[in-house]
Design brief:
This protein has 124 residues and is mainly alpha-helical. The protein has seven helices and no strands. The chain has two domains: 11-72, lambda repressor-like DNA-binding domains (434 Repressor (Amino-terminal Domain)); 85-120, no CATH class. Helix 2 (28-35) packs across helix 3.
């Protein structure tokens, strides 16, 4: 009898979970505690050996503040767009106001690039 190497079900789910966990500065143990799952389950998700159940997927999306569609690789949009101004936090509203105060599109682009740089840096 030969042992079978596990096939990776969906490498995009695994990649995104690793990225989001590291961006959130969580260890696999900490993520397991937050989700109520075992560490070995998190490892299986991150290695592509298992796909999270609907309940686990929903819980992971809530913890990371992204959509389930993003986790599944159905979209590249991580964060759900607010339906109305009331869905925005005070800090999000402040950021929009600062962006609108920029005098030109060049200045707006510089602000967006600065924000992108800050939010995509790997954690120390």
């Amino acid at each position: 009898m030969t042992t079978k190497t596990p096939t990776h079900i969906n490498p995009l789910i695994a990649e995104r979970l690793i990225l989001l966990r590291k961006r959130s500065k969580l260890t696999q143990n900490e993520l397991a505690q937050k989700t109520g799952l075992e560490r070995k389950t998190i490892i299986r998700y991150e290695t592509g050996q298992h796909i999270p159940s609907g309940k686990a997927l929903s819980n992971l999306a809530r913890i990371f503040g992204v959509t389930t569609d993003y986790l599944l690789g159905l979209t590249n949009t991580q964060f759900p767009l607010p339906r109305s101004e009331s869905d925005l936090t005070p800090l999000e509203l402040q950021a929009i106001q600062l962006l609108r105060r920029a005098g030109t599109d060049v200045e707006r682009q510089r602000l967006l690039e600065a924000l992108e740089t800050l939010t995509t840096q790997e954690p120390d």
